[in-house]
Amino acid sequence: MSVEGIAAPQSRPVLEVRDVSLGFGGVRALTEVSFEVRKGELFSIIGPNGAGKTSMLNCVSGRYKPSSGRVFLKGRDVTGLTPNTRATLGLGRTFQNLALFGHMSVLDNIMVGRHHLLRNNAVSGALYWLTGARREELAHRRKVEDIIDFLEIAHIRKAVAGTLPYGLRKRVELARAMAVEPSIILLDEPMAGMNLEEKEDMARYIVDLNEEWGMTVVMIEHDMGVVMDISHRVMVLEFGRKIAEGLPDEVMANERVKVAYLGIDDDEAAGENAA
Q1: What angle do CA 266, 268, 272 make, to 5 degrees?
Q2: Which residues form the ABC transporter domain (predicted)?
Q3: Coil, strand or helix: which one is 185?
Q4: For residue 52, which of 218, 194, 237 has the smallest C-alpha distance?
Q5: Which ranges constitute the DSSP H helices of the chain?
Q6: What Cα–Cα distance (Å) separates residue 236 from each residue in 213, 252, 267, 271?
Q7: Could you give the residue range(s) of every CATH 3.40.50.300 domain in the chain?
């Protein structure tokens, strides 16, 4: 499962964030944050609570519009585009707090992720519904079945999403994000609230998404063991500012990261070594 020791992909950036700042009234959530994510990369964003991690994903996905700065997806400036438009350009997203339709089945929740792929041309609509609707529905169902098999949730496909245990609901939300057929997927704390076995399973799915399905992954996650084990590169935020970026080992060795994120200062580190 680990990608430790594997160099990050060196292809062109699929996501570029340039000097993004975000404010809410007098509160500064992000301050001039810039980074790039290359095609095929598994890129993680870490930082203490309140560091601005989810705010950054919201700027990338279109839920928030930056106060200043630009966001580029595959070289296109998407700063002013809606989340739905960004989805059509290949951007998928999961949320820190589950956003499933609790009254709907697992299968229907996943199908919702494909709504932007459905044809809705008003001129050809009548003819389409007479000739092609059934074929398109079957094609979408096949895609969804592939996702269900990949995430090993066939046994709950007809279950009402709101009745499922938390770990399975997180998996269903990942399935819905995959249904968008994204080239880049944003994962906001995909393992939050999970037990060890569930975390191991989710980490395996994320690595396989990246390596076998070819999806570029941008992930927020608090489990440092997982982040350092599976990420190609890591960026650290503190109070809305970027304080470090690089390979996992480089970031872990950064003194500022030790103080800001891990709560370890030089004196403590010296004491631990002496002991």
Answers
A1: 115
A2: 15-264
A3: strand
A4: 237
A5: 53-61, 83-88, 106-112, 125-131, 133-150, 166-179, 196-211, 224-230, 248-253, 255-257, 266-274
A6: 27, 10, 22, 25
A7: 1-90+182-275
Q: What CA–CA distance (Å, rounded) separates 8 from 248?
A: 11
Task: Give residue 218's identity as a one-letter amino acid code.
Answer: V
Candidates 237, 240, 239, 236; CA nearest to 253 is 236
Superfamily assignment of 1-90+182-275 in CATH? P-loop containing nucleotide triphosphate hydrolases (3.40.50.300)
Question: At 195, is the secondary structure helix, strand, or coil?
Answer: coil
Q: How far is CA 126 from CA 7, 116, 130, 260, in A?
A: 51, 19, 6, 59
The structure tokens 């999970």 sit at 194
pTM for the whole thing? 0.84
User: Which tokens go with 71?
Assistant: 């966001």
Quote the tokens at residue 204. Answer: 């395996």
Residue listed under structure tokens 């010296």: 270
pLDDT digits (tens, 9 = 90+) for 56-106: 999 999 999 999 999 999 999 999 999 989 988 999 998 876 677 878 999
Q: How far apart are CA 199 and CA 167, in angstroms?
A: 9
